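Hey, I'm writing a tutorial for new members on how sequence and structure tokens pair up, and I'd like a real worked example in the thread rather than a made-up one. If someone can provide the structure for the chain below, I'll link this post from the tutorial.
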Amino acid sequence: MNQATAATNLKQETPVNRLHNFCAGPASLPTEVLLKAQAEMLDWEGKGVSIMEMSHRSSDYVKVAQEAEQSLRRLMQIPDNYKVLFLQGGATLQFSAIPLNLLGNQEGKGKADYLTTGAWSGKAIKEAKRYAQLGLGEVNEVASSKDSNFTTVPEQSEWQLTEGAEYFHYCANETIHGVQIFQPPQVDAPLVADMSSCILSEPIDVSKFGLIYAGAQKNIGPAGLVIVIIREDLIGKASEWCPALLDYANQANKDSMLNTPATYSWYLAGLVFEWLEQQGGLEAIAKINRQKAELLYKTIDDSEFYINNVDSQYRSIMNVPFTLKDSSLDAQFLAEAEQAGLLNLKGHRDVGGMRASIYNAVSLESVQALCDFMIEFANKQA
């Protein structure tokens, strides 16, 4: 399949069986990306094989990988003194990799600060403390919003920061609880941010961070891939206990190909980056994301039937949890939503209720369809 034919496929109409998918992850992918991948599935660039059947060492695949990285660098305006790693294991594996790379040292005196604002930052600090217990350093929880059921972010004046911390970890967007921290915290330690569910949703200043990591299955591509963007001065500090595959220095030195990478996920990520550039980049996609979020939150707030308890200044523009005033109607709501082509609206098992994940690939039309359904459903119960 040549480039011209593939480009033509980007313009095909959406298949009629594509429904409105609000899954939190693995999440929606742009239809144009799926169509291009479909067109190239059996015969990539006239090579007679699929991209997933190629050696990751081949010049053809290395070019695909390099172009994906350069596209991401353009989108996020990543400075030259940052490495971009395409790794495996999802974001959860980075809960271990980060302390092993940044906390540990030969004397075990490293210190790290963690802010807990939901389930994922909670899992991150729990994992880091396991390594602290082995003598790799100290892990401090600066503050937690658990007492508020993770509906807000503790005021920074309440944080108990550690002087001389090796890094400060936080989750920029809590997928389960729908809490988003829009501005990077103002701390002295290098910022380490889990951006799994908000990366590429709006422009950010990468230079304010020491390390950014993000699982792919929200705004990047298929599950299994994780992207790590790390400032070069933080590389090469891994504990002696750090496994070779988790050592950022080893991965950086081998261009993320220390072992066989997730080649198809990497390829698809590149197609998503290309699609984002075609949409006008992160500033353009951010405007759409804001429109979608405002529309959905307005539908919730204008109704006495739906409730979102998240502090308004921290409401996520990617994940919108909400409950029905009468929870006995939950099953009926979900069943009728599915009949209307609105999929995967059930809330996370830890919090219940509903959740609409409105990532980049979820269109404004899909969000409008959801809002129309919500209004109609509420009116029928009046």
